[in-house]
Amino acid sequence: MCTAITLTTQQGETFFGRNMDFSYDIQPQLFIVPGGYVWNNVLDMSSLRNIYSFIGIGQALDGLLGFFDGVNEMGFTAAALYFAGYAQYENQPDQHSSAEQIASFDFLHYMLGRCASVDDLYALRGRVSILGIPDPVTGSAAPLHWIAADRNGRCAVIELTEKGFEIYDNSIGVMANSPDFPWHMTNLRNYMEASPYQTDETYWGDIKLTPFGQAAGTSILPGGYTSPERFVRTAYLKTHLPPTENDLDAVISCFHVMESVTIPRGAVVTNRETFDYTKYTAFINTITCEYYFKTYDNLQIRTASLYEVPSQPGQLINLGNLAMPMSFEKVGIQSR
């Protein structure tokens, strides 16, 4: 389970972010991947060369490096989310295909290394074939779909279903998990009456009814943690935010929106008897290529930038684990 959004400030800065909700044990780390970096396609061990440098959150395991989200030097940003029950991949390489064949868990790396914009993403359709290959975290071909955005604020969703390889323009800039993206957009029509305002009074016959204070207009919004409920709440909150004036305002707004769909440990338990909860929340400024993130056990917002560490040509840079102990700032009386 995951939720993602985009947000554009009045100054034209596009932010992209997500909650990483997962029931498997992961140890996410921050990596800087330089332009020209060469990596192996796990399907045939051929060499793939990135065009662009990027910073991303991922995990290295059993000799494989998979990414969950990231942003490249051109301001193109993307994230992978679960798509259970709907994702349909080819599971055998086609030796006669002219398309470049990429494992599903490598597709995010592929996009970040080669796309400068959502237009470039559309150009991949027909040139890339995505195959479902077991990954070392889940031990299966994890069902994934992807959300991407560029520096100009354009957003798209990539889904492989029984209908084939589909790319959808995502004008609302919100994404969750199953069902597919068109279903989520249609489902918003069930909540047209949600409003930040409330009726002051109404009458049922001769009986006068008044609200219990503020927020009566939001009572129709769903309150659970299913993907449709999280999509609706996020779409409502994002589209009713006051205009964000600058990058600080955007970061604060983004984290507050995500808090409404953040899953505490214990609220959702899988049939494997594991907790499905929000491991981390991260937002990206596509202009500065800077991450803002916090983890489940550390609520302090920390930052990391693509340009923070001088890159070495061809060398991957590991900035370390997201997980860090939380500290508390003590407030005392200041002497005069």
Overall strand count? 20
Unreliable spans: none
CATH class category label:
Alpha Beta
- How would you characterize the largest beta sheet? 8 strands, antiparallel
Number of helices: 5
> What's the end-to-end separation, in Å?
52 Å
Task: Provide an overview of this structure.
There is one protein chain. The chain has a single domain, classed as Penicillin V Acylase, Chain A, CATH 3.60.60. It is built from 5 helices and 20 strands. It has helices at residues 107-114, 118-124, 181-187, 227-239, 247-259, and strands spanning 2-8, 14-22, 29-33, 38-40, 47-49, 54-61, 64-72, 77-82, 100-103, 128-131, 144-149, 155-161, 164-169, 174-175, 202-204, 207-209, 277-285, 290-295, 298-305, 317-321. An 8-stranded antiparallel beta sheet has the order 13-12-11-8-7-6-3-20, with helices on one face. A 6-stranded antiparallel beta sheet has the order 14-1-2-17-18-19, with helices on one face. A hairpin with a 4-residue loop joins strand 7 and strand 8 (77-82). The longest helix is centred in the last third of the chain and has 13 residues, at 227-239. This is Choloylglycine hydrolase family protein.
